[in-house]
Amino acid sequence: MTSQPAAASPREPLAQVLERWCVRVERELDAWLPAATAVPGRLHAAQRYSVLGPGKRIRPALVYATAATLGVPLEQVDAAACAVELIHCYSLVHDDLPAMDDDDLRRGRPTCHRQFDEATAILAGDSLQVLAFHLLASHPGLPAEPAVRVRMIDTLAVASGTAGMAGGQALDLAAEGGSLTVADLESLHALKTGALIRASVLMAAHCRPGLGADQLSALGIFGDRVGLAFQVQDDILDVEGDVQVIGKPPGSDEARGMPTYPAIAGMESARARVRQLHEEASRQLAAHGWQDSPLADLSHWLLTRNR
Question: Rounded to a whole number, what is the largest CA-CA distance in the chain?
Fold first, then answer.
């Protein structure tokens, strides 16, 4: 069984589609985040600062692109788009703390703990994490079947924990100033970055009734490949990027002694690995007739981006 793409218009420029999805998820996030005037106001202001500031909204875009590819109404995946972005934003707030990466700049602005204070930043991250799961449990737009909500909650929880993002960050901290093999680095990237990207795809897929096990498996493999390639591309941009474009000083990972793909394997090998992973991801889509779809368009953009 194959699913035909359900894009609004195959000729619509991707930039316009991404902008529409960005506006959509930001509208939802604004509605679900507590008002900065509500007590405790400083904490709520820090939440809103961390979530509603400049951002590419890549993970929500993957949710919406998967839904559009599978013919799932976007209102059924708004909760997933918001939840995965809240988890991502919480992780950035905590990763930037002095005990972690000790960064002063995020998305071209002071990091949360610099704009507010460290204690407020910790609480902001904690509360954004639980808000993500509250959304998946209670958002009215999700499919009515409780089993769908449970699968989505489980998918995001696993991708956020020690078998995913948090575990990857622990490996990242342990590797600082040390040496890793390419295989070690890919395992780290697959957890720290790839797990949440894979979850973005799978949460939307769980909203598609009748999706075959082989189709779900292909989408999971697609998410794995894109997630790893996305982080390798980030490593490349850390060397070659411009602070005005990528929102942080280039070379910041190298300055902290963090292992990166270009540092371990070389820049040409890093570029070749991105191309290889892109081809593998594309084959997963083509096997089910999704080669000309919003998800295919988005994955191509993600892996050829400069920011």
Answer: 53
